[in-house]
Amino acid sequence: MTNSAWLSASLALLALALSFADAYDPSPLQDICVAVQEPKNALFVNGKFCKNPALTTANDFLFSGLQVPRSTANPLGSTVTTVFVDQLPGLNTLGISMVRIDFGIGGLNPPHFHPRGSEILLVLEGTLYAGFVTSNQLNNTFFEKVLRPGDVFVFPFGMIHFQLNVGKTNAVAIAGLSSQNPGVTTVANDLFNAKPPISPVVLAKGFQVDEKLVETLQKKFWYDN
Q: What does pTM read for this prediction?
């Protein structure tokens, strides 16, 4: 994909993200608030401390290199490159962020959810199978779709979702999120790689499986991580 196409796609996605940016993060009370490290002995705040505007530069609002493909040589065959407030301090208080997701053939961005944001995904290259599951209130309804370049799909706030490369080539997507720090909770990691570990009795009962299977999964996640 050309640089101009990348720019157009990114701008379109950010425009969409801006439309729901106020869904969770509070609205800013000043023009800019570039994030800085917390001062020593500072009180906790819901976000980051602000850099003195007089010391702010254009570089505080710049992140470079999102067009560069990332290696997918890992067990999942996918890599997520985040542009959250920790990577781009100028996002502080703005209620938006974005990611690039690279998929090898058969690569999976595993079931996960964002505890502080909704997500809107744009496929740039390849073919992805994506879906999300609603809460118990809606009987855990599963919404799924095969996505191709130019397709946009929304994952509602807090819903478990995933993307799987079902094409014959590598795939690339970018996503906008409605928080400067949406967080990510990977379901399998949380359950089987918790520290300290969750009792196998609890997981075996919850999944209605044998405790030995739970212990096997826990060991696999401990070794892989």
A: 0.85
